[in-house]
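Q: Convert this sequence to structure tokens.
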Amino acid sequence: MERLRIENKSNPLGVDVPRPAFSWQLRAAANNVLQEAYRLQIARDERFASLIWDTGKMVSDQSVHVVYNGPELASRTRYFVRVRVWDTHGVATEWSKTAYWETAFFSASEWTAEWITPQAAAIDPDAAPCHLLRKTFVVGRKVKSARIYATCLGLFELHLNGRRVGDLQLTPGWTSYRHRLQYQTYDVTDQLFEGDNALGIVVGNGWYKGMLTWHNKVNLFGDRRAALLQLHIIYEDGGEEVVATDATWKAATGPILMSEIYHGETYDARLEKEGWTEAGYREEGWCPVEVLKRPKEILVAQENPPCRIIQTIKPIGVIRTPSGDTVLDMGQNMVGWVEFRVEAAPGTRIVLRHAEVLDRDGNFYTGNLRSAKQTIEYICKGGGVERFAPHFTFQGFRYVAVEGFPGEINPDDFTGQVVCSDMEQTGSFTCSEALINQLQRNIEWGQRGNFVDVPTDCPQRDERLGWTGDAQVFIRTAAFLTDVASFFAKWLRDLKADQLPNGGVPHVIPHVLDENSHSSAAWGDAAVICPWTLYLCYGDKRILEEQYDSMKAWVNYMRMQGDDEFLFNTGAHFGDWLGLDAKENSYIGATPFDLIATAFYAYSTRLVAKSARILGKTGDAESLEKLYENIVDSFNREFVTPNGRLAAHTQTACALALMFDLVEGKAKERTAAALVKLVEAAGYHLTTGFVGTPYLCLALTKAGYHDVAAKIVMQQDYPSWLYPITRGATTIWEHWDGIKEDGSFWSDEMNSYNHYAYGSIGEWFYRIVAGIDTDEDRPVYKHIRFRPHPVAGWSFAKAVLQTLYGEVRSEWAVNEADSGLLTLSVAIPANTTATIELPPGFIFADTGRASFELGSGAYTFTLRRL
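A:
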């Protein structure tokens, strides 16, 4: 027994789910081990003397998402949990290692704190400098435990008695602030003193009030920064005291003169207020605060993994460019910021500018940033070694131009700090091909750089928005790479909150574009595809329950458009965005809008129908299934000739029709053959854009043309996945030719070098090449479907996936002595089963069969090519 988790987290603080779910993993040396029964206990004490819920021995194989069904939980309380299980071999485990969780607030009425901000008469609310807020208080006796619950309108850092509280970055994160705002919980027991204490809060604009979108709009969610905090102190004698934000706090500005997500930060160390977060500090020049009337009903406890510094990188060299810039090369296109140390005279101004690439002459290039400045300015205070890292901004960069630094640049004085949502890594893929392995690393770095609290489209220019289309095409790949369950669950709640009353879905979530920016096909479908994918990969029906109304509303929106309820042929759409078969000077590929829109209409309707069945909504399921059939019939009448020829002769049209099962029989055969011909005519290159690319190789393999898919993936010249790598890419590009063969750039206008959407090929590596998949009827890899597809010319491929049940592994290798033989090794965790299905052309050498049913364990087989 191991990994007993609450809400898929390890010993979490600040959980406001009234009925949390528990999951655990079985470890067994024997094969074919299934759980027969479990017993779960919840108590208020570690000795389990005061039980509040005991399931007794439950005959069940369920070991993930066992939902609490005991008495109502209390707020701000620690609960302990343990479990024991019985397996089908008659073996009973001891009690597991005890885990715990702490509840947060279950009601807005529990917030006694007030929203506070500096008095407007003293500090202009629109002025750029960040606010400092402080309060002194007395702790009169020995403390047993202390928790801070805090959030803000903006971004905040929290300090207590001269030390920063916690290691979270960019709190409280980005949500649909009009409807939902997260708060964080901190254990500060060890930071309190008996006697005088001091709290300090730094508040910046962030996404709430700062500049957003390429129009540099401000105050999109509100025009006043503010903080909200409650410190609950429990004393050893059982007493409790609350310190909260109220009118008694004081305010000032400090050294952060400007901090914006896009533009960077300006910090004047000469303005630091030494000791301002300590009790003995004298508040000369500080002004009163005022209390704002802002809602507390929108407050929710931290839902997704918070942002943290997850890795550090040292520069690999210093470059002197032809134009005279001194540039640090970090060796990796990364997201976060640079921490540096310096010793210089007071008033020395150090400027760091950030860029992703150098131009073909080797000069520092920032054209693709558009209006985003990505610039850090630091003014030294002097008097010794100073260290600095930004606070409320982040940059996307590989190269850093350094100006004003005294003396010779020493790379040891600079450290890149990688910042992203701190998700657990769950997957790895390696193979015999070095360029494919680099592509896999680029996919990982693309996710790392763009999952900064929301799934952003790019981390460098004046955009960085939660584009729905990018999220839905990448989510399955993301679920292989890391545990994205709570990351996307939080984002989908914001999608639901921002969804239009008529069911339309904004292009970006949180919604910060104009009122007409919504409901493009493949973008709006994120409302359906994302929750369905989370259900498949993590098996938690609650995500379908939460999002079902939103999913159904999107389907109803499509149904109500135009004069034919079975075709989605009206509205404004992005089409096959950036498709290479686009007309000259167009961003939109050649595949007709209405074909793409109707294809996704059918697909989403089918997924919502499946979701309705799972949730027991029989009436909805039947009506949606009938709707799906009608859409497919209309698709064939509208876009397929009587002889089975697809009307649109594009790679994307064929891939969608095949992937979404919109054509059958003769039409399916002709569509698959047509797709192959289109690929061959392009020299085994793709011509697809954002809509077609994620499905191209999946559709080819599904149709029986795996060799063609593999040839596309292995191309090294433009356009291909490997071409950017030959140009030095360390992340996924927005454009296949972001840097052309002559070293020139595609465009300044829209040319991100860290744009994860095309990294969706990762799904093909895991699901197809290595062959790890889950069964729709038994999701979360309760029943694993191994369907490996070896690639001609590769000597091996291996994928490992950490599921909620344990490690799943699939590895195949060509026999060195006989290339007609392959070795296949798989690992199946306890309490799961699996089917191995070999692709056409392979059989198990010892039996001649092409499939096997297996229980848990590790197995190795020899395969023979036919």
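The first helix runs from residue 206 to 209.
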